[in-house]
TrEMBL record, chains A, B:
Residues 5-49 form the HTH cro/C1-type domain. Pfam families: LacI, Peripla_BP_3. The keyword DNA-binding applies. One of its GO terms (molecular function) is DNA binding. Transmembrane segments: none annotated. InterPro entries: Cro/C1-type_HTH, HTH_LacI, LacI/GalR-like_sensor, Lambda_DNA-bd_dom_sf, Peripla_BP_I. SMART domains: HTH_LACI (SM00354). Keywords: DNA-binding, Repressor, Transcription, Transcription regulation. It comes from Arthrobacter gyeryongensis. PROSITE patterns: HTH_CROC1 (PS50943), HTH_LACI_2 (PS50932). This is LacI family DNA-binding transcriptional regulator. Signal peptide: none annotated.
Length: 340, 340
DNA sequence: CTGAAAGCGCTTACAG
DNA sequence: CTGAAAGCGCTTACAG
């Protein structure tokens, strides 16, 4: 390995001081073009590569942010991550990514390692069993601004879908179809779950439609989780008019398990879900789903964080933003008819 | 903001020297437990957070690697990225992610910013129009080891699917079905494309089956790209017995466009593709696809890079690894019957 | 086993 | 407009 070329080498070759060379690298206008050109030539000659980490140490900012999500096989998370990248990339940030796999311990470990690496800010889609106190302590101790995405805890900046609204739209749709009972399946305790349930109850119960949603109907956010939840539901002995999945991934398992038991989704039981990832429209029958617009969540969250970073994380109060959902009605509910 | 707590503060509080404190942070056994305990107490008291970037500057390694992929909406890329994370996380690395969107310029910009941030190594799924010389120059100047994933250029470490083999399996299957003509659609010039085409020709042409694959049948790796490619194919006036898509994403568009033109995939024309992401099995009819095992590609690529990093990037010759593919036969080809 | 000093590659006041 | 010096927070020889 050739020894590393430093700014000192460049400045010597160009016949100027280190400070002058430093100013040139950063494009300062205080340096006359003639001097700057000499420095740039020297950089090219020597094959200089800027060591931003060294600069960071001095400036105490890294132009780096951390993004922690559950995983990215779920297209909802993938689109959200890409949107974050889009915004932060344009702002000159490079992003550290970590996948918590919805394990709070792994999540904290990831955050710790990002903090050690001096991230300027953090965007987190929190694991359901996150301890908010612990999280607050961890980021506050380091003075790193944090915005939560998609799932919220009080006291943190947050951008997510307006789940109550989305669930209300869905509930009204099902009530209009004449549903008398709805089972809400899958997901783990998180604000998104609570909010969706709230919207469903609010829109269905006043219309005389029962909402079944108990702890035993929760599940991991996987197709298998959905299948298992349906099984537990059917083992209770009663079939609802409609099944609402926590999201599209869970719904896939619900379709599968229903068919294994000889029930056709959309005909025997209406089925709907949340997120409206590309999975939903691709199902057979196409799945009614509440679009959550992860691109908007990610983009808005990134902007919110950028704002805090720009303001030196001053006394901006906690920021909240809700993205408006949209109900996509497809045949998994539209073709269902109440049994007479 | 409270002023940052440094190792110096800790050492003073613990009544030892900075070097001793440093040794304790890194768990050196040279420090007696009694001293170490005092230091650790001081760290807790003061709320010390390790500044790994400062350490990096001194040690000239960052325990950071860069991963650059096209995007992650395609589950193939998502699974690959997660597999890389799995391996590198366990080895103590944190990963910078960048999405090239298959734009060579953006790719180089991303790599440059990662290099400035002192990544120890780079994993790249290269954009099709990458200039290999330029890439080599960029990473060699910085002395950063690089492994290519899924698409190769000569002279770089590489892990990818054995595309020739996979395409051969698929070609043999189609030949056995009695196909007399096959159109290969979608994708952009890349080793993966060339290799797939090679395998198809090798297995089909000797069996009297034509392979149509020209520049005008290429397309972006999107459903729209697939639709457009089918349109261009049909505009040529002849229908093949089978259409092979560059991958599952392209195949989605092929299904759509065929139906728009009144042709049923799997009945009127057999359809198959590559990658076998969860998209394939979820299609109607289920899509025959050559599984490329992105988890294995990602994991093996990460291991390869870790090896180079462990060996101080010594004179290990270029490393190559091919992952064995597997043909998943589904009804999009299995139910097709030659017209008599 | 522990401490004082130098140095990683930059930037930042401060002089001139 | 440009230079010499100090410092960001660590680690690394080197003494003792």
């Amino acid at each position: 390995m050739t020894p590393r070329i430093t700014l000192e080498d460049v400045s010597k070759a160009a016949g100027v001081s280190k400070s002058t060379a430093s100013l040139v690298v950063r494009g300062s206008s205080r340096i006359p073009e003639s001097t700057a050109a000499k420095v740039r030539d020297a950089m090219d000659q020597l094959g200089y590569v800027y060591n931003r980490s060294a600069a960071n140490l001095r400036q105490s900012r890294s132009m780096t942010i951390g993004l922690v999500v559950t995983e990215i096989i779920n297209p909802y998370f993938a689109e959200l991550a890409m949107a974050v990248d889009e915004i932060t990339h344009d702002a000159g940030y490079t992003i550290f990514i970590g996948y918590s796999r919805d394990l709070a311990d792994r999540q904290h470990e990831i955050i710790a390692s990002m903090i050690e690496r001096q991230v300027d800010g953090l965007l987190l889609l929190p694991a359901p069993d996150t301890d908010p106190q612990k999280l607050a302590k961890q980021v506050n101790a380091a003075g790193v601004p944090l915005a939560l995405l998609a799932r919220r805890f009080p006291g943190f900046d947050y951008v997510g879908s307006n789940n109550v609204k989305g669930a209300t739209l869905l509930g009204e749709h099902l009530a209009a179809l004449g549903c008398r009972s709805v089972a809400f399946l899958g997901g783990r305790s998180a604000s998104s779950l609570t909010e969706r349930e709230e919207g469903l109850r609010k829109s269905l119960e006043p219309n005389g439609c029962e909402v079944w949603s108990s702890d035993e109907l929760r599940s991991p956010i996987t197709p298998e989780g959905g299948s298992d939840a349906v099984s537990r539901l059917f083992d209770l002995g009663r079939l609802p008019d409609a099944i609402i999945a926590y999201n599209d991934i869970v719904a896939q398992g619900i379709y599968d398990e229903m068919r294994r038991r000889g029930l056709e989704p959309g005909r025997d039981i209406a089925v709907a879900s949340f997120d409206d990832t590309r999975i939903a429209a691709g199902q057979v029958p196409p799945l009614t789903s509440v679009a959550g617009f992860p691109q908007q969540v990610g983009a808005k969250g990134a902007e919110m964080l950028m704002t805090r970073l720009a303001d030196g994380n001053a006394d901006i109060p906690t920021q909240l933003a809700l993205i408006q959902p949209q109900l996509k009605i497809r045949s998994s509910t539209a073709t269902w008819r109440t049994r007479t």
